[in-house]
């Protein structure tokens, strides 16, 4: 697209880039702030945000994709977390004081007996946010982090690796130790010189570290400074200062760092969430431009033949719930590009009032081989009074992060976190919206199709309603605390939205929508979000009605897992970008974006004007 961009485009692009870099910079910066606190600049900051964070222990980090957490075996996991936190602490100290043999003896003993954790939440995060450099704890820590913050942790890990900061970490370690010794030395009579030396070194390192977060930022003579600091610490160690004092001080610093680190961890996770949820400027621009254009010169409404086609039960009907023009365009384009025959395909994009006109114009302007595309505004559908009253708005497929113990070995394998997506309230309107149809394939708007899907239409589902990919690493049994006393087969696997073949006729026969609504109503009595209720009610409504399709159909996780095999990606029939890092976001995992982007039009005028393709 670069060639076609006007000078206006370039300027806009630069501005947009600037914004993105700004936000990312903020995110990264706020991860580094714990360092500032280590350096003793904390007093100014502390009162500002920290208190309010304490008052609201439910952190903002739960907003967005990762907002709903289902935690099984709660009591037990709390226990494990505690043990983990302790272990982590232990290792940190073991590592941090490796260089100074005298100090080592002190901290580990006392830290293992450190007082019980006041607030489990705080400390889980704390363990994560600490300046931990021991490689062997990173895995445990990673698990804890994910338990609390979800895919943010993957993102963070990925971006941290780019930072070269071995020296910075070493300096921080030294500073940490020096600060622990300083008060004891300062109290010693006739040691003014050493005390001054320590103080100067501390101040110097503080200054350096307040300006540098990576090794390249460090001033040239830093090795000398480090040497001087090491020498001062070595001298300090010669004095048999009360071990208790040093230990006490270490723990003070440690606690403070822990709290601050936790606060900043939460804050940066929040910024990450913000970046995840905020519609990119280019997409916003596209939506606005299309809407304006729609009203400037209203297109002729749907051709008659198209209207007929969209209700012909003999065709292959695909349904997409979406409020994202580009995402739904990619789903449709990738489907038709790989289908042997597109003339028998009809796509139905269900959207809301706000995006309806943009979508409408987009799909009138663009053709997808010979396929038909119908855009429906879910808010203006003429459904019967009952469903209209209860289900008015568009709800997209819900995505969840579920953390639980693996039942097989509850102690050893502490916490697993799975990412799943599932039907939302809007999906239960399907039989009513498509009264003439008996079968539809529902695709989430974060998928890319890479093969012909026609085989799905000859699937014999044996009386089941929903053909879905099952997710047997998560069984309903593991969610029992969550699903309550309802009766269900404990061994049933969870299932995913993304690709679902729906037998609408059977759905109607079984009154599944009513079942769902009844369950949802019963569950709403508890204090829970609509989305969390939808998860439980969906799992229970479709209990026993899932036909397991071959897992090879769809490869999930491209929105949260950095480690997916490239070969597996190229072989999969469908790629599912479930997770926070959607391919249309700046935060999207770079190496997977290509599979999505290639289905965008290279020439479209609106895309160029909004810098979508850059
Ligand atoms: C935690 O365990 C206690 C005693 O075993 C039990 O009474 C309580 O209901 C449990 N809490 C949860 C949330 O499961
Ligand atoms: C946690 O550690 C304590 C002893 O330190 C142990 O008794 C307990 O079983 C551990 N809990 C878990 C869940 O590992
Ligand atoms: C902590 O470390 C000490 C020695 O380094 C070890 O004896 C102790 O078992 C460790 N505690 C835990 C909880 O890992
Ligand atoms: C729907 O509501 C309108 C008025 O609110 C009423 O006239 C109509 O009969 C209702 N239709 C059904 C199917 O209940
Ligand atoms: C579905 O509902 C209709 C009327 O509301 C009822 O006659 C029928 O028996 C129900 N079917 C099932 C399977 O519950
Ligand atoms: C569909 O994808 C192809 C590339 O595979 C691209 O050339 C074309 O412009 C796309 N069409 C639309 C309408 O986006």
From TrEMBL:
EC number: 2.4.1.-
Residue ranges, annotated region (Disordered): 90-120
Pfam annotation, one family: GAUT_1
Biological-process GO terms, alphabetical: cell wall organization; pectin biosynthetic process
Segments forming a coiled coil: none
Keywords: Cell wall biogenesis/degradation, Glycosyltransferase, Golgi apparatus, Membrane, Transferase, Transmembrane, Transmembrane helix
Any single GO CC term annotated in Swiss-Prot or TrEMBL for this entry: Golgi membrane
Bilayer topology term: Single-pass type II membrane protein
Subcellular location: Golgi apparatus membrane
Gene3D superfamilies named among the record's database cross-references: Spore Coat Polysaccharide Biosynthesis Protein SpsA, Chain A
Biased composition (Polar residues): 110-120
Record pathway: Glycan metabolism; pectin biosynthesis
Chain segments annotated as transmembrane: 20-41
EC main group: transferase
PANTHER family per record: GALACTURONOSYLTRANSFERASE 4-RELATED, GALACTURONOSYLTRANSFERASE 7-RELATED
Protein's name according to its UniProt entry: Hexosyltransferase
Source organism (scientific name): Juglans regia (English walnut)
């Amino acid at each position: 697209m670069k060639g076609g961009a006007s000078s206006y485009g370039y300027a806009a692009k630069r501005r947009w880039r600037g914004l993105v870099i700004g936000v990312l910079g903020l995110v990264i910066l706020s991860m580094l702030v714990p360092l500032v606190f280590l350096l003793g600049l904390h007093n100014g900051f502390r009162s500002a945000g920290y208190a309010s964070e304490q008052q609201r222990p439910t952190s903002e980090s739960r907003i967005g994709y990762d907002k709903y957490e289902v935690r099984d075996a709660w009591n037990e996991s709390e226990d494990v977390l505690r043990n983990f936190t302790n272990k982590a602490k232990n290792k940190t100290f073991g590592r941090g004081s490796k260089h100074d043999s005298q100090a080592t003896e002190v901290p580990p003993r006392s830290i293992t007996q450190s007082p019980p954790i006041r607030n489990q939440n705080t400390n889980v995060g704390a363990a994560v946010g600490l300046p931990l450099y021991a490689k062997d704890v990173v895995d445990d820590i990673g698990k804890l982090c994910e338990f609390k913050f979800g895919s943010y942790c993957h993102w963070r890990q990925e971006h941290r690796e780019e930072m070269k900061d071995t020296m910075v970490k070493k300096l921080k370690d030294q500073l940490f130790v020096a600060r622990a010794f300083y008060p004891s030395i300062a109290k010693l009579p006739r040691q003014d010189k050493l005390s001054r030396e320590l103080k100067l070194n501390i101040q110097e390192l503080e200054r350096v570290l307040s300006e540098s977060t990576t090794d390249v930022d460090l001033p040239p003579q830093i090795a000398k400074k480090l040497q001087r600091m090491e020498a001062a610490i070595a001298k300090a160690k010669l004095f048999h200062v009360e071990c208790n004092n040093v230990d006490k001080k270490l723990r003070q610093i440690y606690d403070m760092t822990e709290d601050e680190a936790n606060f900043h961890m939460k804050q940066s996770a929040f910024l990450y969430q913000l970046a995840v949820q905020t519609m990119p400027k280019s997409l916003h621009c596209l939506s606005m431009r299309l809407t304006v254009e729609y009203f400037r010169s209203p297109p002729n409404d749907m051709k008659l033949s198209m209207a007929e086609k969209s209700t012909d039960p003999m065709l292959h009907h695909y349904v997409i719930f979406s409020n994202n023009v580009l995402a739904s365009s990619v789903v449709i384009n990738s489907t038709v590009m790989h289908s042997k025959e597109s003339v028998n395909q009809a796509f139905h994009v269900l959207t809301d009032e706000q995006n309806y006109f943009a979508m409408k114009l987009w799909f009138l302007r663009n053709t997808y081989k010979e396929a038909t595309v119908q855009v429906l505004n879910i808010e203006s559908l003429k459904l019967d009074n009952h469903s209209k009253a209860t289900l008015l708005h568009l709800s997209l497929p819900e995505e969840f992060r579920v953390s639980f113990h693996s039942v097989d070995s509850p102690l050893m394998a502490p916490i697993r976190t799975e990412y799943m997506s599932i039907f939302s309230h809007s999906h239960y309107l399907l039989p009513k919206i498509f009264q003439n149809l008996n079968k539809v394939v529902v695709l989430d708007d974060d998928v890319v199709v890479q093969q012909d899907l026609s085989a799905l239409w000859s699937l014999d589902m044996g009386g089941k309603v929903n053909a879905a990919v099952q997710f047997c690493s998560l069984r309903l049994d593991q969610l029992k605390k969550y699903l309550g006393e309802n009766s269900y087969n404990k061994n049933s696997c969870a299932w995913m939205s993304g690709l679902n073949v729906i037998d609408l006729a059977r759905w109607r026969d079984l009154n599944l929508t009513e079942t769902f609504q009844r369950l949802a109503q019963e569950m709403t009595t508890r204090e829970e979000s609509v989305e969390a209720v939808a998860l439980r009610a969906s799992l229970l409504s479709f209990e026993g009605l899932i036909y397991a399709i071959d897992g090879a159909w769809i490869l999930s996780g491209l929105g949260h897992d950095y480690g997916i095999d490239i070969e597996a990606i190229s072989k999969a029939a469908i790629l599912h970008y479930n997770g926070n890092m959607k391919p249309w976001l700046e935060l999207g995992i770079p190496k997977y974006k290509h599979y999505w982007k290639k289905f965008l039009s290279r020439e479209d005028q609106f895309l160029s004007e909004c810098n979508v393709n850059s």
